[in-house]
Amino acid sequence: xxxxxxxxxxxxxxxxxxxxxxxxxxxxxxxxIELTLxxxxxxxxxDVALRNVRLVNVVQGRVIPGSTIVVRGGKIxxxxxxxxxxxxxxxxxxxxxxxxxxxxxxHVHQLTTAAHHLLHLIQGxxxxxxxxxxxxxxxxxxxxxxxxxxxxx
Length: 153
Description:
Layout: H1 2-16, H2 20-42, E1 48-57, E2 62-72, E3 75-80, E4 90-93, E5 98-99, E6 103-108, H3 115-122, E7 125-130, H4 136-146
Parallel strand pairs: 1-4, 1-5, 6-7
Antiparallel strand pairs: 1-2, 2-3
């Protein structure tokens, strides 16, 4: 995380010395990177239960209303209409919202920064396969797996 913050600071210093049209072109990208770093530091996986969920079961091809999803360590531990919420766990009423399996994008070319990965997550894409194969992508994968950064798997 410290290395990414340092890299962001260097990028911002370099861009500050550029003509206004160059700064404008990349300003939004830097904002998204900063948002990704901020969100990653503030929002960590936590144990929580979601009640009153319409669970989409793609294997059975049906929607299961009145379901509960229990999340532990950032992963779904239990899901279904008969799931009991463990004592002391935070509970969120989903208000009948639909819960669907995460989407997978199997052909991504993310050549420069990790900023777009936050946008993937916002759009429900939880898994990506980057076709570019640059060495820094291994570090991104490690950061995603360790929970340091909010990236799709």
